[in-house]
Structures are given as structure tokens and as C-alpha cells.
Please model this.
Amino acid sequence: MSSVAPANPVPPPADSPRKIVTTAPENSETPLDAQRGWITPTESFFVRNHFAVPQIDLAAWRLRLTGCIDSAAEFRWDELDAMPQRSVFATLECAGNGRSYLEQRAAGVQWGRGAVGNAEWSGVSFRDLVENRQIDERALEIVFQGADQGREGGVEGEISFARSLPLDVALHPDTVVALRMNGEPLTPGHGRPARLIMPGWYGVASVKWLAGAAFIDRPFDGYFQTVKYTVERHSSFGKSCEIVAAMRPKSEIIRPVHAETLKAGRHYVEGIAWAGSETVAAVEFSCDGGCSWRRVELTGPQEPYCWTTWRACWEVSAEGKHALLSRAISSSGEVQPMRHDPLNGGYIINFSRPIEVTVCARGDCWPRASDPQCPPAHHS
Ligand code: MTE
Model:
């Protein structure tokens, strides 16, 4: 018996705190300008759906394990809830985040910069579900299957959302079947009743409305990792296709905002930065369009999988337009690039993007209401 009833596309509420990018299905962004603190509140956390949100009857729902294991197994929600719970703080970023800023337009949802958020995800380590089970030595990958389905351009009939992980990645203790987000049961938009959380990887790997996990003995060739969510790579062996996986280092300036007018003086420039499964080792700030850089103060926790917050004190007296930039450096030394790699197409968009502000020295422009002047001693 199927526990999933077909759902009509339900438009997001008109008063959603998220910025709506498309309505059916909902794709909506986190308003980063409003981001305060380290955790993104669930109601403003971006939503990325390929199909309509499936309506799932919790009483009938099961998570099914199948394929190359000694015996198929299924779990009810309350059984998962009764198991030892693991909590992972992780930043989720859509691989297409920032697509609307590309010079060369790429197909897909035209995200601004808000398809990213940081939350606490709790549930069961996936590997706890296979404990005491015999995994066939032929098993190579695990395919995580969502309960949502629909049509995608160029494909005949309906397809389901599914992504695979290599066995060792899926069996890492931090790969979690999450039942809760920020301490509350998952909302329908974020995958109720259960979703995978693959911390450190682009959000596409974190399959929502999880219905099954199939152990397979060959590379999975599903649509969302062969046709979509792949990038081209060139080497001496020729061209190859790589599945979008680990998140690359990236930072954003949150305040001031692009096109803002500031009074000459000392201003805090604030932002966020992340580096996939690594920690952010440093963030650098430039107020001259990238000619010179200086290190900023990291103000948030520096945890693997998570963004950190940062701020710099910027003293400016010159009237006119100024290009502000930031760049993240990961703990292994990878530096956020200045240009988009065209081989990434519409994915992995982590180049430093300048925000332009106008500085007014004559006193006839208003400082931001919440703009504390930073002290001269705070230069970092
Ligand atoms: N899982 C299912 N079943 N269907 C989807 O459309 N979208 C993926 C992933 N998991 C998706 C999914 C993508 S591309 C992203 S970025 C994240 O979910 C977004 O998670 P969120 O909507 O909770 O922010």
C-alpha cells in the first residue's frame, strides 16, 4: 500500500518570511539581510523542491532498506524516534545558489544568494539502521529515494527524486536520517517525516521525504546525478562528468547590502562563510575591489559542516562608490575563487561577488538605523 497521496502544488503562504522564487513547486530563499545569529530559523530557511510536496500519511509511512543486504528491513517513524538520536549542525546550500548572478545565464531556478541556511538536524545515524545486518560485499552505493515524483523536461513520464551516496559516505556516523530540524519535527517543506542529511555536501544529496534506501552493486545512473547536478571536468585523459558533491568554500557579505548609501565613518561589515565539511580557517575582506585583502574577526562558532559569522570594521572617508568583497579560506587552505568556473555551468557558484555601496560625506545621507560605528581600535 502506498502511503503517498498525489499532492496538488500548494503555493507558499503570501506572508512567507522566505523570498519566493517559484510557486509551483515552491522554491524560496532565505532573506540573508534578515539573518541574525548562527542558526537560520526554520520558517525562513530556503526551500528547494523539484516536484510538489508529497502528502504522507505518517501512520502508513515506512523507511525501507532493500538490495544487497541480508534481509530487507523497514522502520516506522516512532521506531526511528525511539533509537539513540544524533544531532548534526550543518549548513545546507543548494548547488545552484547564486545562479542569477552568472554572466552567462544558466538554466534552472534563478536563485539570488539565499539558497543557503544553517540548522540543527537530529535523528538517527543511517549506519545505526544497518547495524547487525550483513551488507553484501558487492554493495557499492546506497540510493536514497524520495517520495516525491513528477515531470522533468526532456524525460518521458514521471520520475522520482533519488540520489546515491558511496557506501563509506552513507555509513559515516554524521550521515543522518533527520526527523527534526532546529528541535522541532520536520515541516512538510523540509521533508517531513524524515529526510537524509549529508553534511558538507550540496543540498541535493540531502534527500527529503525519504522512503527508501537501496543498496546497489553498480554506480547509480538516476536523473539527478547524470542529467542534472553534474559538472564537466577536463584532464589529460579527456573530458569527464563529475557528480556535484562536496560544498566549496564561500562567503557572503550580509550587511551593508548592495546599493546601500552609507555616511562616511566607521562601519561594521558583517557576513557569513562556510567550507563544506571543513571549518572556515579565515575570511578576508577587501574594500578596493580585490586589490588588497585583510583578515576579519570570526564571530561565530568554527565548526565543521557549518557556516561561521564574521565582521570587519571598515573606515571610509572617500565619497562615491566602493566595491566590497569577502573571501573564505577553508582549513585545508582552499581559497574562495574570484571567478566562476565555466565548467561548473549553473552549479557550484562560489566566486566572490562584489557588493557596491555609495559613501556620502556631506552629512545629508542617513546612516543605517542599526549601524553602530565601530571603534578605531577594532580594526582587524
Ligand atoms: N529531496 C527530494 N525528495 N526532492 C527534492 O526536490 N531537493 C534537493 C534536496 N532534497 C529535493 C530533495 C535540493 S536540490 C536541495 S538544495 C535540498 O533538498 C533543499 O532542502 P530544503 O528544501 O529543506 O532547504
